[in-house]
Automatic annotation (TrEMBL):
PROSITE patterns: AMP_BINDING. NCBIfam families: PRK04319.1. Keywords: Acetylation, ATP-binding, Ligase, Nucleotide-binding. InterPro entries: AMP-bd_C, AMP-bd_C_sf, AMP-binding_CS, AMP-dep_synth/lig_dom, ANL_N_sf. This is acetate--CoA ligase. It comes from Virgibacillus natechei. PANTHER family: ACETYL-COENZYME A SYNTHETASE, ACETYL-COENZYME A SYNTHETASE 1.
Length: 570
């Protein structure tokens, strides 16, 4: 990284906002003259060739493993994996999906994939068969890296584009067939060279595909390009506040955008040491992780903080959390109480900020140098214009609610929805602006406050769930005639998923059936999208054209006014 660049000083938000230029940020990268780029080179190799060569890039641990990898280790391992893919004939632009529990191998294979110019597609480890199928099918992935344990959830015989499955770890390996070949990761890695010619990319070439949900249709593949690095680098520098000696821990899984943009790219672009902890959440485990690595910067989500609030002060005192100097939160509303609690127990303010899978990087934030208003998400990042607009694209007066919109053209903006131009256009109906469909207000001082979603997307435990995906699964059950799914407010999880179903003839309402339906979604799709509550009803409210009115169910459920019912079928 060239240190001679003069950049605005983030000690003063207004000054930084006024003087910022993305062009100047570009000069921080090795490619700014050639124009040819590769995210993995900038995140790994550049440091491996610098004074950071022996610096730890990744600390990984779970119940069984405890390992660390320097930038140089990561360079050679990702090179080797890149060669594994090249030896299979994989080329630039092909989709390589990663479906594994958190492990060093995810990061090695992700970086190796990027190095040969292929597009990485990380999948959350909790996905079950239908969820895996939908994503691999839509993306026409040709390679999948997974574990023998997760393989039974991959319906590879039904996925004609899928040619190669690389299995990480021990377990049974199925026989090859004419349509598909299986490989053992360890064996292939031993055979491949650690010297690799990186594929130099255009800034606009595809890099990573994250599937996410809207209120209608199956999950959609949001494509980000190598150019996103400019945004991720600078936001990580200023918002995560990364300095040379920091130990950074982002708790998000790489199956979600937070776990890549700020779990890997942002921190590594800044040459930071990254902690990855495998396994499940527990307060003891998380606090021990902070203590063990002396974590200085900790990035998590409101649900996790709310669950940590259950640990009393005596419980917290058993851990040495004195290394912490900066805490951040994203993904769902961070209540003011949680900020106050954080100040009390950690002596630090939890910094909220806002962005989406589609934005690729942070858009609105509380900066370390800025006064926090607990409950607010902060202010737009320099170089980004965000505003609260009405349906016509006019800015609403301060204090009034509208859609949180972002002026098109920020560097990490999604470039495509995979094979769905129409969906992409749907975000840009206000000319020149990206519409998040989040409802928000801006106060007199320019701080932005989250109010809710203006569609049916559910935010549960920090994860974004589309009702359609869950409904589609429910109606596959032989007893279900129709299904509608809503988010119901919950003090810890933000929202929980509640399903309303009507039954086919011959089926009776029972507690057993409700439980069975929940299990059905859990086994078919994923545990985190399984409805915590299932209510069987005689009929579901519908428009005259037959569309189920989720908003009416939600209003009934919450005892709220139902609004305009003129289109409802009587
Ligand atoms: C919500 C996660 C309140 C919002 C990075 C957005 C938030 C969706 C916040 C994106 C916040 C994100 N306060 N709500 N600070 N940050 N959201 O794509 O509704 O998983 O549209 O990206 O999460 O979720 P996604």
């Amino acid at each position: 990284m060239s240190h001679s660049i003069k950049q605005p000083n983030m000690q003063d938000y207004d000054e930084a906002y006024a003087n910022f230029s993305w062009k100047e940020v570009e000069e921080a990268f090795s490619w700014h003259e050639s124009g040819k780029v590769n995210m993995a080179y900038e995140a790994i190799d550049r440091h491996a060739e610098s004074f950071r060569k022996n610096k730890v890039a990744l600390y990984y641990s779970d119940e069984k493993r405890d390992e660390k990898y320097t930038f140089q280790d990561m360079k050679y391992l990702s090179n080797t994996f890149g060669n594994v893919l090249r030896n299979l004939g994989i080329e630039k632009g092909e989709r390589v999906f990663l479906f594994m529990p958190r492990s060093p191998e995810i990061y090695i294979s992700m970086m190796g994939t990027l190095k040969i110019g292929a597009i990485a597609g990380p999948l959350f480890e909790a996905f079950m068969e239908q969820a895996v199928f939908d994503r691999l099918e839509n993306s026409d992935a040709s390679v999948l890296v997974t574990t023998p344990e997760l393989l039974p959830r991959v319906p590879y015989k039904e996925l004609p584009s899928l040619k190669h499955i690389i299995l990480v770890g021990d377990g049974e390996i199925p026989n090859n067939s004419k349509d598909i070949n299986f490989y053992v990761y360890e064996q292939e890695m031993r055979k491949a060279s650690r010297e690799l010619e990186i594929e130099w990319m255009d800034r606009e070439d595809g890099m990573i595909l994250h599937y996410t949900s809207g209120s209608t249709g199956k999950p959609k593949g949001v494509l980000h390009v190598h150019n996103a690095m400019i945004h991720q680098y600078q936001t990580a520098k200023w918002i995560l506040d990364l300095k040379e000696d920091d130990i950074y821990w982002c708790t998000a899984d790489p199956g979600w955008v937070t776990g890549t943009s700020y779990g890997v790219f942002g921190p590594w672009l800044n040459g930071a040491s990254n902690v990855i902890r495998g396994g499940r959440f527990s307060p003891e485990d998380w606090y021990s992780t902070i203590e063990k690595y002396r974590v200085t910067i900790w990035y998590s989500a409101p649900t996790a903080f709310r669950r940590l609030m259950a640990v009393d002060e005596e419980g917290i005192k058993q851990f040495d959390l004195s290394s912490l100097r900066h805490i951040l939160s994203v993904g769902e509303p961070l209540n003011a109480e949680v900020v106050h609690w954080g100040r009390k127990v950690y002596g630090l303010s939890i910094h909220d900020h806002w962005w989406m899978t589609e934005t690729g990087g942070i858009i609105v934030s509380n900066y370390p140098s800025m006064e926090i208003k607990p409950g607010s998400m902060g202010k737009p990042f320099p170089g980004v214009e965000a505003a609260i607009l009405d349906g016509e694209g006019n800015e609403v007066p301060r204090g009034q609610m509208g859609h949180l919109c972002v002026k098109s053209g920020w560097p990490a903006m999604m470039r495509h929805i995979w094979k769905n131009e129409e969906k992409l256009n749907g975000y840009f109906e206000i000319p020149g602006w990206f519409d998040s469909e989040d409802l928000a207000t801006m106060d007199e001082d320019g701080y932005i406050w989250f109010e809710g979603r203006d569609d049916d997307v559910i935010l549960t435990s920090g994860e974004r769930v589309g009702p359609f995906e869950v409904e589609s699964k429910l109606v596959e059950h032989p007893s279900v005639a129709e299904a509608a799914v809503i988010g119901k407010p919950d003090p810890v999880r933000g929202e929980i998923i509640k399903a309303f179903v009507s039954l086919r003839e011959g089926y009776e309402k029972s507690d057993g059936l409700e439980k069975e339906l929940r299990e059905f979604v859990k086994k078919g799709l994923a545990a985190h999208v399984a409805p915590r509550e299932v209510e069987i009803r005689d009929f579901l409210p519908k428009t005259r054209s037959g569309k189920i009115m989720r908003r009416v169910l939600k209003a009934w459920e919450l005892d709220l006014p139902t609004g305009d019912l003129s289109t409802m079928e009587k």
